[in-house]
Amino acid sequence: MAIPDKDKMKDPSKDEAQPIVLIPSSIFKGRDLSVLESLVEYLHFKENKTLHEIAVLLNRDDRTIWTVLSRVKKKRGGKQ
Fold this sequence. Notes:
- By secondary structure, the chain is mainly alpha-helical.
- The protein has a domain at 22-75: Orthogonal Bundle (Arc Repressor Mutant, subunit A), CATH 1.10.10.
- The chain has helices at residues 35-46, 51-58, 62-75.
- The longest helix has 14 residues, at 62-75.
- The mean pLDDT is 86.
């Protein structure tokens, strides 16, 4: 049985160019939201990213991002 050479194996992460998004550290200052909630809130409302775009950036399922955003809205009183 032959073991595949790691150098010849294709790395799928190199095929797609991931966009660089700069996140200000100040969004994590408040203790009322978790780190993931703060990040999703920033990306959705400030950077105008869709839930799917956020899910791809964070390597999470779309439904997870939807749940996190819904918790943010609940904690913020639905003001968003």
